[in-house]
Automatic annotation (TrEMBL):
GO terms for molecular function: ATP binding; ATP hydrolysis activity. The keyword Transport applies. Residues 2-231 form the ABC transporter domain. One of its GO terms (cellular component) is plasma membrane. It holds the Pfam family ABC_tran. InterPro entries: AAA+_ATPase, ABC_AA/LPS_Transport, ABC_transporter-like_ATP-bd, ABC_transporter-like_CS, P-loop_NTPase. This is ABC transporter ATP-binding protein. PROSITE patterns: ABC_TRANSPORTER_1, ABC_TRANSPORTER_2. The keyword Nucleotide-binding applies. Keywords: ATP-binding, Nucleotide-binding, Transport.
């Protein structure tokens, strides 16, 4: 189980997260739902070790992993899909997915995960992971890399953003695949239709958890709040 216990995060004297408590049990799927600026990506970074909380702890199976780096956490099976994936010049999709051959997977597995994310192997394996890929294609490659790693925990920061109209079906396929291999999913989104696809949800805004429970229930509450933060008058960071 991955757990956030009383996590706070402040920067330049501003509180971004306040007393966040979340638990992610093995093999279950969760969403973190909230408007832009709610603090969702900050939570993802704290889970992955990109930043350290100002207060509180990150626990993995009761072990305090707060001091661990990104690499150390990755070795423990925690992965993050970045909201804005990076691009790499001169590296092909297949090289990227297999970590330049360091990941021991065969071509069939690469083919399978590319298929799941809607990228036919023959058309994409030798493409470069650079500007020639659209944002959506780049995101699909990143999702395929997470599937291939078979992580214990997959934190997906807005996997639906930058994708086209078929995003809903793609997310279904990805969640099905991750469930089959027993990965715990932590899906970050501001779309209620996407949050509904997971079992449990946390509604976050103004850096606080204001509702948690079965996704249907939390989504109903979110809809009543019109996707806005009942704690704040204006919630917008312009994207
Ligand atoms: P979300 O992912 O829910 O849109 P974020 O976690 O990215 O929200 O950001 C939460 C709030 O914290 C936003 O108001 C954002 O501007 C602010 N914030 C995040 N990182 C920093 C930073 N490094 N410096 C200052 N403010 C930040
Ligand atoms: Mg945002
Ligand atoms: Mg974000």
């Amino acid at each position: 189980m991955l757990l956030l216990r009383n996590v706070t995060y402040s920067i330049n004297g501003r509180k971004i997260l306040e007393e966040i408590n979340m638990r992610f049990k093995e093999g279950m799927s969760y969403s973190i739902l909230g408007p832009n600026g709610a603090g969702k990506s900050t939570i993802a970074y704290i889970l992955m070790g990109v930043i350290k909380p100002t207060g509180g702890k990150v626990l993995l199976d009761e072990r305090d992993i707060t001091p661990l780096s990104i690499t150390e956490r990755a070795k423990l099976g925690i992965t993050l899909l970045w909201q804005e994936p990076a691009r790499y010049d001169g590296i092909t999709v297949e090289e990227y997915l297999t970590l330049g051959g360091k990941l021991s997977v065969d071509k069939e597995e690469v083919r399978e995960v590319l298929e799941v994310v809607g990228l036919p192997y023959e058309l994409y394996h030798s493409r470069f992971v650079d500007k020639s890929l659209s944002g959506g294609e780049r995101k699909r490659v990143e999702l395929a890399s997470i599937l291939l790693l078979k992580p214990k925990y997959a934190i997906l920061d807005e996997p639906d953003s930058g994708l086209d109209i078929t995003a809903g079906e793609l997310i279904d396929d990805i969640l099905d695949h991750l469930r089959r291999i027993g990965t715990t999913v932590i899906l970050i989104t501001h779309h209620e239709d996407i949050a509904r696809k997971t079992e449990f949800s946390y509604f976050v805004c103004g850096g606080k958890v204001i509702r948690k429970g079965f996704s249907d229930e939390v989504v109903e509450y979110y809809k009543r709040a019109c996707g806005k933060c009942p704690l704040l008058e204006v919630v917008s960071d312009g994207h």
